[in-house]
Request: fold
Amino acid sequence: MLDNEQCPNCKRINKVLSRVGDRWSVLVVISLAQHGTMRFNELKLNLGISQRMLSLTLKQLERDGLVNRTQHPTIPPKVEYNLTEIGQSFREPVSALGYWALENIAKIDAAREVYDSKH
Reply:
């Protein structure tokens, strides 16, 4: 186990990873990386996420500086989201994680079946 001397920022790293590593944050970043600027409902439909969860996720990503929120003064209001510079820098690791999941999903499903049949 690392102590504060070995890793003085471990607790802070944990906070960052818990935000950027959660399921919906990863999927929002992947969607914005693939499609560029998107409206709230486009993201909602694309991800199959609830309105409440998407709203919470976008607020946290905006707070962390990964996502820009732009509200246009129209009726009805038009709100768009895109990745910031730091969000763009997160594209590569998130895409790698997404591709890894796609490449290994059949193996994971098979492993789960074996595990479930034993338990």
Notes: The longest strand covers residues 67-72. The two ends are 31 Å apart (CA to CA). The helical segments are 10-20, 23-35, 40-47, 51-63, 85-89, 91-118. The domain at 10-118 is CATH 1.10.10.10 (Arc Repressor Mutant, subunit A).
